[in-house]
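Um, can you check?
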Amino acid sequence: ISNFDLISEIFKNNIYSIEKKIDFTFKEAIILIDNLEHTLINLTGYKKLNGSQLSKDNVTYLLNSLKLLINENEKNNTILHIFNSKYLLDKKEIENLPIGLFGNFYSHELSFFMINTNDHKNLNNILNNCNLKLKKIISKNFVDGANFINENKENETFLKININDKNSSLIFFENSSLKFIKDFIFGFEIILKDISKITNLEIENIKNILNDYDFNAENLDKVIIEKKYFK
């Protein structure tokens, strides 16, 4: 966000247009972010039990300690999401929070998803300028992953690779928790340019060929491209 007045005006005009169309006045908003810079940190807290029972207070203390550690060391970032990543009791991974179980050593891993605090303030101010309250900011990467898990119940741990025209990303989920994101400033376009250099074909022609033909290993030697593609 480099021009507050311009962005605010765009928001206002679009919101007013929607409100007028559906005859409804919005009071709050949930923002789904896709391209803001973010930070994702994984931390693990530990508790010696010495044969005693794990209590809710033990878990609450660990969670608050890790959150405090993040707030003290990431002063330029604001936490958007906190995910329970992993529970270990005596080095054995437990599927659910093991409150009430006995053991000697408990560890609890959390994932913290954050954005820059100034970005958070700017979004808040823009919505305030539109008479809207910012209810929540959600990462689109998390929503995409959650939707995938809902459709594939058996795949709670997976690596998702997104390749767009001009950018790409790696997204890693473990036990339904967002653990890692890496964005790249290149995408499918760089492959098209390489093919264009080798074949001297126009980009649009290459897109048409790739869309219409199946270049798998089994039939690669048999593919004959029709004359109409060579403009």
Observations:
- The mean pLDDT is 90.
